[in-house]
Structure prediction request, 270 residues.
Amino acid sequence: MRIFRNFLRTIYYSKRLILKDNLIELFKFYGSDKYVNHLSMYKILESLLNKNDCKKILEIGIGGHAIEDENFSGNSMRALKKYYKCDVIGLDIVDKNFLSNEFFIYTGKQTDKKILNKIINDHKKFDLIIDDGSHFGSDQVLTFNHLFKFLSQNGIYIIEDLDGAFTNKFKGSPKLEKSKNIIALTNEKVFSVYSQFITYKMYKKKKLSNDIDSIFFFNNSVLIKKSKPKKKIRDKYLKETLSQFNKRYYRKGKVNKNVDGTITFNFHRD
Prediction:
């Protein structure tokens, strides 16, 4: 009876995959819990990361814990590889080299900079990084700070299961310390999305980045999209008054005075 149910299940999901080839259906098919725990986020991911632009994915936390069984490990990695048709790299604290015929597998802690650097040296840049590892608050912060710079331009960084970030028992911080709570850290980095509009003094004070395109906060996860470095607006233009702004545009011939006395700004002229 169980074999028959599994056979029907395979046919059902195979049909849906053919009719509707999307990441959520693939998570369901391969038995990953991401479509349950992080449904909204992964629906957005499909629109943010084009299939043709994704060449390498790094997932921290392969699943299955200590179980050496392919049915309990690498399920989300299989879905990602099927959807994006790219190389998938996995890091886990437990040896999962029995999956090395499907993926690039590394064993170690996500806080071990030696193993992180080994992965970076081997694969250079990533288009998608998913932290589904220890779920310890301080681990999430350390890994993000170390790996974000190795995202490709327009790459995506995801951190799942953030409840630990707010508790002492999971090395988080109820006091919202940025060194232990990834939401406290990324919340401040929201200003980085608008870095071109921030004065140099505030930019340095808040330790902002100029290569963050957007940040999406969800109930139990966060997604950060990288951008190419943004060209900053000069401080004197950020601080000028409306009167100074008008005079500058008059002086540069970028304001047209109409017959009826009104003015039109010509923003398209150099």
